[in-house]
Amino acid sequence: MTYHRRALGIAVVVLVAGLTLTSGIAAAQTGRVHVAPLKGTVQNLGASSFQLKTSAGTSTVAFTSSTRVTKIVTGSVGDLTAGARVSVRFVTGSTTTVKSVQIQPALTRKASDGTNPPHSGAKKTWTKTTGSASTGARPTSTSTHSGASGRIVSFKGNTLTMSERHGTTAIYTLAGGAAITKVTASTVTALANGQTVTVAARSGSAVFISILAA
Questions:
Q1: pTM of the predicted protein model
Q2: Hey, which CATH number is domain 2-65+187-211, 1.10.10, 1.10.150, 2.40.50, 2.115.10?
């Protein structure tokens, strides 16, 4: 009896260790795209696969020429044009001063495989504001969120006016040296060892890869 209990205990430990090591891509074997894309570093890049090193271990990610890929690149204030979809992150302790802006690609129809690209990295949150931009009053946030998302209404000087959820308008101030990045369409040929990426996979094969800014 003691022998069998020890054997069972060892088997459980081995099973848990194996699941932990492959928690990333193994979770996709259910046939579903990851709800939260895996983030890691590209290693041992080959013609159709690479090793993804994450905090949980290393997993093999397969890809094809049709795998959807985006790349986050450096942007500029010239990219902050009316109608652009953006995600902003606030300076610590503020809900109106922005430390970074990420310009999102135009919305497209859901892919034929039924998936949507994972979020590119910026925390998508919404700020609740009071006041009215039309009267010149600066909306003040009642939220403690670290960021917001919406469409640009205008950008003048360092003042960013955005249309957010349910038509709410909010006004933000870009901090000096605020980082501006934009998400661009890319291909698997842009993959390289050492890159940090996020991956959404199904059945061990990537359906979407986002190459993060260096």
A1: 0.64
A2: 2.40.50
